[in-house]
Amino acid sequence: MYFLLIVVAASLLSVGLCAKILFADKNTPQGPALLKRVLHNRVRPEQCQEDPAQDEGTYCPGNEPSAVANLSQPTVQPKKELLPDYGVYQMRKQEWLFYFGLAAAFCFFLAYVFYRSLFLAVLVTPLAFFYPRYKTKEIIAERKRELTMQFKEALYALSSSLSAGRSVEAAFKEALKDLTVVYPSPDTPIIKELSYIVRRLEMNETIEDALADFARRAHIEDIDNFVDVFVISKRTGGNIVEIIKNTSAIIGDKLQIKQEIDTILAERKFERKILNIMPIAMILLLSWSTGDYMVPVFETAAGRMAMTVAVFLLGLAFYISGKIMRIEV
Length: 329
Fold this sequence. Notes:
By secondary structure, the protein is mainly alpha-helical. The protein is 76% helix and 0% strand.
């Protein structure tokens, strides 16, 4: 019995060692090449005694610890800097689980309020899988809105630097210094983007390529238009200072109009939330105060059909009111 356990343990250890060699990084000496040397360069013990200085891949009894030691050393590879694509957002696992749990709890609560059935409440809960996707779109829109406001500040800083007589390349470096005062955090999107543009300029890349890459990842119409006009004027010798001033003024006006619209709609958005909550509150109030009166609604087929129509109309009202309140400038 003990002999069988020892054989099984030795077999598992051998399989694990071979798997580690097979699945090691192909760019490192611990990869398949090492396995090939170990399997095909085996020599007899007397050859190891006659010539201890064997090749690096030669397998000799007594060399096993060094091979295992080499396998145990992890390969450290430099991390590549990944620039964000503002049109794409990938939720972390914890973040996805949080939003899914929040939506699942809401779906369960809403279904139980309208149907008073645990089975139907559990049956409706999988609809929460759609909420993380909806939340991702909201996060992407918020990131673009934040980047647009920061880009406007960057244009003001660029315009001031160019008006002082600096070149375009020097103006970007000076604008980065000015914006670090306004946005001290190095994780601010515009700080990261300007830092990357400055590094590319220091590597003798053209400002046109750096700005084109920024516009491609930003997915913002104002930035696309600015880069197109900037590149054309730089090639044809246009007045870049006036272009930046006009662009910053246009973006500033659009943001101001957007803020005024949001201020006007703030009261209406609050009323929308109240109206969406009121049907749920009324059902809870009626169920608590007049339970016998609401029994047919929860237990009969006609009552559940009426509740289904009510839930559908409530969702439709929420969707249509959201569309009405979403005004693009």
